[in-house]
Structure formats: structure tokens, C-alpha cells
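Hi R.,

Quick one: here's the HPP family protein sequence you asked about.
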Amino acid sequence: MRFIRRAETWDFNIDHYLNRIIPPSPLHTLPVPISRFLGYRKQQKPDVGNVLGALYSFVGAFCGLAVVAAIFNNDWSIQARHPPALIASFGASAVLEYNVIRSPLGQPRNAFLGHTFSALIGVGITKLFLFHPEFERIRWIAGAISCGIASAVMLLTGTVHPPGGASAVLAATSPDITDMGWYFVALVMFGTTMMLIVGLLINNLQRQFPMYWWSPLDVGPKRKKTVEEGVMSNVKIQLDSTGDVAHERKNVIYISAREVVLPKDLMLNQEEAKLLESLKGRIGDLELTRHAETARSSTEDTIVSSHLADNDVLTAYP
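And here's the predicted structure, written out as C-alpha cells:
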């Protein structure tokens, strides 16, 4: 029982290790037409309504599956392997990539790697079962094991994509796909890539896809703590509710109700930026409160103005 309780707290986050070596997104440096169709937005906005969303879902699913099926059925090198007219698991992927496009399950990392890992596992397990003389009779066991392992791998690698489970099952239970062997993995990777390309074109006309390519969390190498502490130890934070800021001063963060001014060499992460924006909002609220109090009476105005004048500028040294 103690072991079971201890196991309940186990948690493996592969992004804790991978995000350190994944380079930051370069999309903001690309020309706007290109970055837009790769999913980059300076500011996120709500998705379109479900009526227009249903239209884009229909157009995207039709175009995505039609493109994949057209290539599968007209390319001689693919036809030589006698593939199915369309891999069934792509139908489920179409719902995630063209319908609920903000779902983490349908982002490029999940779609591409989820399908790829599942296909690899499905083909690998099936080839092991093929050594059994009565494979046809126990084919369903290979499918169940393949799906189970694929599900576990997708969870541990942060690539959960439900249609990937279908790809693993198909590798074991569909005779046509079983005969294709490892070629099925390449076919799945190619088909998933084509569906993602169609998603970029269709979804970004009025919507946003993907929400992220790898992870919503910060990626890239982290600065050493000693460097961060050395920079922050020389930074003075001054909150100014009057908006009178001296831009020429160095190593000072100025926050007013209208703007936030940072030293040129100071880099902030996402959490720090949110904190500064929050302080900027609070200073704005302080100004609104002061104006409201001013309107009450001239007597209160004198008291309140005197009180606020002492708190207009707050200087804190770390």
C-alpha cells in the first residue's frame, strides 16, 4: 500500500528536459504574411463563432482529407504498396486539426509525433506477433497491446493525439496495412504533414492555428542564476502614477498608468512581463480612484491629494 501511495505522486515531465534545448520560436522575425500563416499573432483574440467555425471545419476537413487521398491514390510509388484509399485515423485527426483547433491534442507536435510514435509501435508489435504461427487468430491481441503501449508513450512524451491510437490498431488489424510494414510509418508521417499544411492555410484565414508549435511554456536555454542576480541587483524599480518618467536614466524600470519602460539590456520572461503589466494596471486604478475622490468635495480633495502625493512614487531596492 505504501508503494501504491508513493506511486501516485510520481510525475515525469519530458518538457522539463527538452524545453532547455528547443530553440525559441523565430516566427516573430518573419514577414507578417508568412508568420500569420504559421500561427503567429502579436495578440491573441477569441476564436470565431461556431457558425463560421463549422464552415471552416467542413472546408478544412474536406480539403485536408481530399489532398491526402488524392496523393495516395495517384502516386505510383504509394500505389505499389497497395494502401487503403485513406487511412481511417486521419478522419479523427481532421476533427482536431480543423474543428477544435485550440485543443492541445491537435497542435502540430501532438498530431505529428502522436501519429508517428503510434505507427512505429503498431508496426513493431505486429511484426513480433507475425512470428506466431496462428497470427490471424490472435491479431486482435496485437492491436490491443499496440494501442495500450502507444497511449502510454504519448502520455509520457507529451504527444497525446487520440487518432494515433487508431493508427496503432490499424497496423495490427488491417491486412493491407500489416503487409505494408514499416512503409506505413512513412505514409502516416507524410499524410499528417499534408493535413497540417492544409490546416495552416485554411485555419489562418480568420482563425489561429497552431496555438503553439512545440509547447505553450518557455523554451530555450535558461540564463544562469548568477547572471540574473547580478543584473537584478543593479536594477531599481520605480512606480510612477503621474506618468513623468526620465527615460535617460539607466538600469531603472519605469511603470506608469500609460507605459512600462525597461533598460535596453534587460530581458524579461513571461511571468515577469505579466507582473509588470499587473503593476501598470494597479497604477491606473490608483489614478481613477484619485479622480473619483477629487470629485467628492474640496475638503476631501485636499486630504486625498496630500495622501496620494506621498505615494505617487514608490522606490524599492532589491
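Residues 225-248, 302-309, 311-318 have pLDDT under 50 and may be disordered.

Cheers,
M.
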